[in-house]
Specification:
Pfam families: CD20 (PF04103). It is a single chain. By secondary structure, this protein is α+β, with helices and mostly antiparallel strands. The protein is built from seven helices and four strands; from the N terminus they run αβααββαβααα. The chain has a four-stranded mixed β-sheet with strand order 1-4-2-3. The longest helix is centred in the first third of the chain and has 54 residues. The protein is elongated and about 95 Å long.
Amino acid sequence: MGEIMLQLSQLKEARLSETTTVKMLSLLKALANIHVLLGIIMIVLSGLADYTSTRINTIRLHGLEEICSFYFVLVGLVGICGSASYRRGLVITYLVMCIHSIFIFVPAIITVSSFDIHFYQHECWGECDWHLLATSLPTNSRCQIMCGDHVDDAMRRRMTRLGTDYRLDAGLISLAILEFILSIVTCVVASRTLFSPLKELGDQGTSGELTVELQPLNQSEEHTDSIPNGSTH
């Protein structure tokens, strides 16, 4: 009877850890929804920045910020699928994609938007005798950037304005910082969700209670019933 009571207490602890894991997965799902929301807003702002750049005839890296923003949407979608299906592989993928966001995609948006703001506020103009997307450069190529009072009217007619409206880029930088913080929080929660059950199993194994937990209940009952029968024989 003592073994049965010990086993029941172990099952209660297992249910408690399972409930904690479900709560962590629910938190991951909420964070994933925020990833999707931020990514969609950043796609809209990036599209508006490209449209504004086209209207005022300025040069910026078209498409880069849209690609990074779409990646944030994918991060959220993977997180939603992983937290809803309880699949460990998807949660690991969610964690890895958040790490990519922290070290690659968020810095890319902040860097590009910062250059756009700098060039636009300082009224910088650029001119190159080769196309920026050319596969090879000419042997005697030349590219220059002039800012402020160094650019006269004649130079403005042959050069191209650099940068975009700082309000759109400032919004992108702010959202990228939020995505950076959100990705860090997601990595912490995902790591706890993945490694907490393994830690609990390790603790149970070292304490010698893992074999008791894995023992079926009916086996313990049969063992207790067979003791008085054996004594009669």
